[in-house]
Design brief:
alpha/beta, single chain, about 40% helix
């Protein structure tokens, strides 16, 4: 598996203040601060412009992201791209990342099925998300799903109660809470279109805020 060097290298740079996303990404590739690195293929760090005005934060990489080493390229990522386009946001100008950088899964036959990260795993990965926030310094953070909001707010944050409105998020300007696009893939057929439209409406708030 990729990135399985000895843990000693990581210890020296823990809680470091990085000069670049590349430096943070390189150190994160050797992270051993929780057990998720063992079954995962590799660390999946964020990607996008180094000074993006919008940062999208999801939960964790999925199966395809784990194999490719890139965030939001699987089914949820394709749905996100479509929703961003409808909201008037070009994905190429936003920074996309996850609260947890390794894929947590359980085997079901030959399939690797997503498993929700624990609070301790979110906490162990927070150093990398904080580094991304410091380096990108976005004007708006879009928190997608419960795990992302748990990391960003430091506590459990109800999605429906807080979604769709801009809130202060010092020192990074504002934050907008919404659902994770993978949620939309699980919604039963009759309700999926309605929930998708609500997701696009949330992203349109972000688009208007950046104009």
């Amino acid at each position: 598996m990729a990135g399985k060097s000895p843990p000693g290298r990581r210890e020296a740079s823990r809680n470091a203040h990085y000069r670049s996303l590349k430096a943070a990404r390189d150190d994160a590739s050797d992270c051993r601060d929780c057990p998720l690195w063992k079954p995962a293929t590799q660390t999946v760090f964020g990607e996008g412009p180094a000074r993006a005005r919008i940062m999208l934060v999801g939960e964790q990489p999925g199966d395809q992201e784990d194999l490719a080493g890139r965030p939001f390229i699987g089914p949820a990522g394709k749905l996100l791209d479509r929703a961003l386009g409808e909201a008037g946001i070009d994905r190429r100008i936003v920074y996309v990342t996850n609260a947890v950088k390794h894929f947590k899964f359980e085997l079901r036959g030959k399939r690797r099925l997503h498993k929700k990260p624990a609070d301790a795993e979110i906490a162990a990965c927070l150093q990398w998300l904080q580094s991304e926030l410091e380096l990108v310094a976005p004007a708006l953070v879009v928190s997608m799903g419960a795990s992302a909001s748990r990391a960003l707010f430091g506590r459990a944050t109800p999605i429906e109660k807080n979604r769709g409105r801009l809130m202060d998020f010092a020192p990074y300007g504002q934050i907008l809470v919404t659902v994770h696009p993978s949620f939309l893939l699980r919604v039963p057929g009759p309700d999926r279109a309605r929930e998708y439209d609500r997701f696009v409406a949330d992203l349109r708030i972000a688009a208007r805020a950046m104009k």
